[in-house]
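REQUEST FORM: STRUCTURE PREDICTION
Request ID: SP-0412
Submitted by: Lab K.M.
Chain count: 1
Length (residues): 136
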Amino acid sequence: MVEIHEVFTNLGRANSHAEKAKALLDGDSLGLRTLMRLNFDPRIKLHVNEEIEYVEEDTQEYAGGFKTLHQVTRAYSSLTNQRMGKDYNTTQLVEILESLDPREAKLLHSAVNKDLKLRGLSKKLAVQVWGNRIFR
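STATUS: Completed
RESULT:
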């Protein structure tokens, strides 16, 4: 399975609209679709503090091995729970971010802030690729 940061690298290298759509479809996964919804769907709001601070682990020094966005996708869906306090949810999000490969942590952090800006990525492209399967 292709890592999500690799999908975005391929997307950035694509020149035509068809190549961009193919890059997203080739890397299609629950993790990627959830990241797109988190970034582009204004109805999805995580119940976390405004400022999220986390420590990026050095790729060379992290002995425990990094998790991928594919592995933690289901974990951050619970962060929309309004019954849990913002501080608790923020702590959970920070733990997720710190367990990820730094490249994927940056992607998730940007998507949480609805600020995932990459060359070739747009809501229009995401809707064209996945349509009503992820956007209602």
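NOTES: The chain has a mean pLDDT of 88.
Reviewed by: T.R.
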